[in-house]
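Suppose you are handed a protein chain with no further information: no name, no annotation, nothing but its sequence. What can you learn? This example shows the usual starting point.
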Amino acid sequence: MTDQLNEFTNENGCPKCGNMLTSVIKYTWWGGFIGPKLFHHTKCNTCKFTFNSKSRRSNTSGIIIYSILLIVVAFAMVFFINKK
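A reasonable first move is to predict its three-dimensional structure. Written in structure tokens, the prediction is:
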């Protein structure tokens, strides 16, 4: 599936190699179905570089922050459930 968000921006394709064919990622190990939608996670079909289709930058820092927040929330839930 070609990234439809590229139609609305001035720049098209992969920011790394310039290939016009990109795919929207729908599921990842780190974000399930929600994370890729939050970060507009897109993958180049040629060089396999993953990036944010809106900002055209790597999502690595956002993924790290998202993962840490999920871990903190999970531990907080376990702590409060076990406290009862």
